[in-house]
Amino acid sequence: MKNKYSIFSLFKNALSYHENWQRAWKDPIPKKEYDAVIVGGGGHGLATAYYLAKKHNIHNIAVVEKGWIGGGNTGRNTTIIRSNYLWDASAGLYDHALKIWEGLSQELNYNVMFSQRGVMNLAHNLQDVRDLKRRTHANRLNGIDAVYLNTEEVKKFCPIINTSQDIRYPVLGGTLQKRAGTARHDAVAWGYARGADEMGVDIIQNCEVKGIKRNGDTVEGIETTRGFIKTKKIGVVAAGHSSVIANMAGLKLPLESKPLQALVSEPVKPIIDTVVMSNAVHAYVSQSDKGELVIGAGTDDYISYSQKGSHQIVEGTLNAILELYPIFSRMRMLRQWGGIVDICPDASPILSKTSIKGLYFNCGWGTGGFKATPGSGDLFAHTIANDEPHKLNAAFNLNRFVSGDLVDEHGAAAVAH
Amino acid sequence: MFLINCPYCGERDQQEFKAGGEAHIERPKQPTELSDDEWAEYLFMRKNIKGVQFERWNHAHGCRKWFNMVRDTSNDQIKAIYKMGEKPPSQ
């Protein structure tokens, strides 16, 4: 039984110099057999294991992770959470996640620092204005809070934006989702890991999957660097490496893995209390609780697994940031990194069964998976437990690339987010 | 990467080039006779290899010609470059 985190436990542990905190999760040796194995110990994978145990009463689960939990894209994103997507299917999926975020810290007894500071999307040309207005209406029809702001209202909401009309891409307006915001990405992985561990899930780190054993069209287990693990259900949540795992099972996915970069500045006093995104010039920025500006750059157009991106991508993003926020012109950047994102042709994820019985894929989140972490885990757990998708992720099946029923979110989500 | 050796212009900065994805995906010879599965395979399914991969590139801000590249996607090293229509080099 885990000790509950509270103000009293904090006080009690302070008296012993914080040296006696209980381990948040165990470091188990893999068992020979599990009822289900989740491949990938990022936020989505850990959340999947958590909800399988909590809602579907499957406790004999392993989460196998090649590196350390939360060390992939979970720890590399810019932590933005929003649900203002255009199409009904996406709105349902992402708002389901946002609703879970709103109570997640309490549910996990772990402070994920969810902060509903609002996300503002800017329009820089007339087509942007039309698209954003259309999206605002679509959002409101789906019960998602969204308002359209004119240039003055944008300036009022975030005064440091340069709204001068003589810049190359002037701000013509924007949308605002007030329920949107940010969360602490590591805490999400750690909170789900702690919760899953308490319910009996084995979190096995430094354990790379080397092969998937099949008997005809049914899975039998996985080969790993720590031995063979027998199981009837495998949920793959491997982000940029999804195609690599699919290849082991003889499957092909409609994915391309590309580097996506982000960077943070030196820490400064509070200067921007919201998240501002601009698809057209590709700049988005927020400020972490440590005071760093968190800046998201774009993806490179070539396939790469190197976790490094090109220099000109960062340069282009900073050009745009400086034109929109001249006040940042003398800031220095502290760190820059890349993550490998798995991009679907329609910029929507895949949460689906496959042609192989017992093999499930949760992938294709591309540049914007972090925001969906709790919802993705919840719906993928449902899909694995029932061998059927939940109605909220039914549209996000693998078969849509055969039927042509795509969920084309490029308009709302083609930008890194 | 950083420098790419265009088979028509010579070495140029990577910024001048645009990646065109997996190479040697052949357009269906009889499109009207294709099943939905075969269309999906042709249009959407990709090898997305971690390791040595054959791809198409375009010298977008130069001669604007297309060519092929063999590249290791795990470390971005270029192994070979050859013109469209030429046989890919054997490993």
How would you briefly describe this protein structure?
With 417 residues, chain A is of the alpha/beta class. Chain A has helices at residues 7-15, 43-56, 88-108, 126-141, 151-157, 185-198, 242-248, 311-324, 373-386, 400-403, 410-413, and strands at residues 33-34, 36-39, 61-64, 80-81, 119-123, 147-150, 173-177, 181-182, 202-204, 209-215, 218-224, 227-231, 234-236, 256-265, 275-278, 283-287, 293-299, 333-343, 350-353, 359-363. In chain A, helix 2 runs parallel beside helix 6 (185-198) and helix 2 (43-56) packs across helix 9.
Describe this protein's structure.
The complex is a heterodimer of chains A (417) and B (91). Helices cover 30% and strands 24% of the residues of chain A. Residues 413-417 of chain A have low confidence and may be disordered. In chain A, strands 6-7-5-15-16-17-14-18 form an 8-stranded mixed beta sheet. The radius of gyration of chain A is 21 Å and the shape is globular. Chain A has helices at 7-15, 43-56, 88-108, 126-141, 151-157, 185-198, 242-248, 311-324, 373-386, 400-403, 410-413, and strands at residues 33-34, 36-39, 61-64, 80-81, 119-123, 147-150, 173-177, 181-182, 202-204, 209-215, 218-224, 227-231, 234-236, 256-265, 275-278, 283-287, 293-299, 333-343, 350-353, 359-363. Chain A is α/β, with parallel strands linked by helices and 417 residues long. Chain A is built from 11 helices and 20 strands. With 91 residues, chain B is mainly beta. Chain B has one domain: Folate-binding fold, CATH 3.30.2270. Chain B contains 1 helix and 6 strands. In chain B, the strands form 2 sheets. Chain B has a 4-stranded antiparallel beta sheet, with no helix packed on it. Chain B has a two-stranded antiparallel ribbon with strand order 1-2. Chain B is globular, with a radius of gyration of 15 Å. The mean pLDDT of chain B is 94. Chains A and B meet through helix 7 and helix 10 of A and strand 3 and helix 1 of B.
